[in-house]
Amino acid sequence: MELRTHSEQLLVKHLREPSFSGLRVYDAMRFGALHLTKNQTLGDAVQLLIRHKANAVLVTDQRMTPVGVISKTELITAYYSDLPLSLKVQDIMSTPVICCSADDKLDSSLALMQENRIHQLYVIDPIDHRTAGSISYPDIVGMLYRYCHACDNGLYNRHGGEDRHEFIGRLLVKEVMKQSFKTMDYQLSLLEVIEELALSRMGAILLLKEEGRAAGVISKTDIMLAYKRGVKNDTRACKVMTPRVYACDENQPLEQAIREMIHNDLSRLFVYRDEPAFMTGMLSLADAARARSGSCQACTSSRIVPKSQAN
C-alpha cells in the first residue's frame, strides 16, 4: 500500500528500527535454573531435560556454584558413543559455563549466544556468584510476542485485526527463516542422524520418503527419548521420529508463526511455498530472536516498557 502522509512515513521508519537498546537481561530472563550436582547421572539429566522441555541443565558443586553445563548435544553424543546412562554428568559436561549479569544489555547477551553458538546464558548474581536464572532465545521471543499481543499494531490485538494499520510493513517468515535445512532418508539409522546433527549443528532433521515427501521429523529430543528407553542406536530413524511435521507458509506473517510455535511448544517450524509438499526453509525461535521483532519491528526501546519500570 502506498504511503500518503509524511507522518506515516516517519512512523514506518520508527517501526523498522530493530533495537533492544535500553533493555536489560532482567527484562526477559527466566528466574531460577534447572541444575544437577556433578555426581548425578546422565539418566538424571535426560529425565530432567525431557520433563522440563529444556535444552540444557546447569551442573553445580555442593555450594551451588556452576561448574559446567550438560545439553542435549552432549547427551546424544553419549548415546552415539554407547555410554551408559549411569555415567556421571561431570564426565561429559562442557565447560566453562558462559554467563551474564541481569544488568547486561539484552543486545550484548544475544550477541554472546550467537558468538558461542549456544541457546542460553546463565545469569549469575555478582555478589554470591550463584545462579539467579537464565536467558534463552525462547525467553526473548516470548517477551517480544507478549509486547506484540498487547500492541495496537499487533496482528492479534483486541482493537481490530490485521488491517488496522496496513501501511506497517509486517515481517514475513521468508525474511527471517533459514533457507538451508537438512533432510535425510527416513530409513537411515540413528547413528547416521546423530552424525548429521553434529556436523550441521542443527536441532532437527526432516526425514523424507523415497518420493521426496516428508515422512516426519527427528529432533535431539526424540533421540534423547530413545536413549532413555534403551533403544539401540543403530535403529532406523523412522522408528523414533515424530510423524507430524509442523510447517507454515513462507508468506505468513512472522507474528503468526511465532504464535504457533509458542502455543504448540515448538522450537521450530519447517517452511513451504504454496503447498506443504515443497519445503523451502526452516524457522526457529533463535531466528525470530535474531530478527529482534515479533512482527513489524515496532519493538524499540521507546515502545517496550522494561520490567524495572513497569510498576
How would you explain this protein's 3D organization?
The chain has about 300 residues and is α/β, with parallel strands linked by helices. The protein has a domain of about 110 residues: CBS-domain (Roll). It is built from eleven helices and 13 strands. The strands form four sheets. It has a four-stranded mixed beta sheet with strand order 1-7-6-5. The protein has a three-stranded mixed beta sheet with strand order 2-3-4. Strand 3 and strand 4 form a beta hairpin. Helix 2 packs across helix 8, helix 3 packs across helix 7 and helix 5 packs across helix 9. It is flat.
Quick rundown:
Helices cover 32% and strands 18% of the residues. It has helices spanning 6-15, 42-52, 72-80, 106-116, 137-150, 173-176, 190-200, 220-229, 254-263, 285-290, 307-310; strands spanning 30-31, 35-37, 56-60, 66-71, 99-100, 120-124, 131-136, 183-185, 204-208, 214-219, 247-249, 268-272, 279-284.
